[in-house]
Write a structure and sequence with these properties.
mainly alpha; 9 helices; Transglycosylase SLT domain-containing protein; two-stranded antiparallel ribbon; about 45% helix
């Protein structure tokens, strides 16, 4: 087994520019994330949790799995996109890691990351628990931003997409789209 990180995203051919501002990307992200979004439950054994919390963790796991499938194409925890600098299962960009306080403006790893045993890119890629924690913080931040900019108010509505098909807007879809393009772009 190779010890070199898999880089599936860098090998993909470039997509042609779209005339519409990434609406198709949003539609795809929304459609793939049609499970309720929830903030992850604290790490406990499932057998000691109330049934509702087990269901929440399961939904969160499915939600995150769908994001990971789109972001790292199943390459896993060690995935690295050399062209964008995106890291790990969820392809966290350096700007996302700065937004959650794990990297400083110069790209150095902070004490917040060190608290999860991450002091380098290699540490991050080798640490699934740290990647899950970083993703949890990022999703919580995205949800707060979507609430603040009013975008979460669209959840429950059905709109007509650019392809003319109906598109159901869910909270999960909005958060997934914010992971892909940012909360500001989702609001626009």
């Amino acid at each position: 087994m190779s010890t070199q990180p898999i880089q599936p995203l860098a090998a993909r051919p470039a997509r042609p520019a779209k005339a519409v501002a990434k609406t198709a990307d949003f539609k795809g992200a929304l459609a793939r994330a049609q499970v309720p979004f929830s903030i992850p439950a604290p790490q406990q054994a499932a057998r000691t949790m109330p049934e509702s919390r087990v269901a929440t963790r399961t939904a969160d796991s499915v939600f995150r799995g769908r994001i990971a499938a789109q972001e790292s194409a199943g390459a896993g925890w060690a995935a690295r996109n050399a062209s964008s600098g995106a890291l790990g299962r969820y392809q966290m960009l350096p700007v996302a890691l700065r937004d959650i306080g794990w990297q400083d403006a110069a790209g150095g790893w902070t004490e917040r990351a060190a608290a999860m045993s991450v002091r380098s890119e290699a540490d991050f890629l080798a640490n699934p628990a740290a990647q899950e924690a970083a993703m949890g913080l990022f999703l919580q931040r995205a949800e707060r931003q979507l609430a603040a900019n009013g975008a979460l108010g669209a959840a429950g509505q059905t709109v007509t997409a650019t392809d003319g098909q109906p598109l159901a807007i869910t909270q999960a879809g909005l958060v997934a789209a914010a992971h892909r393009r940012g909360a500001g772009a989702v609001a626009r």
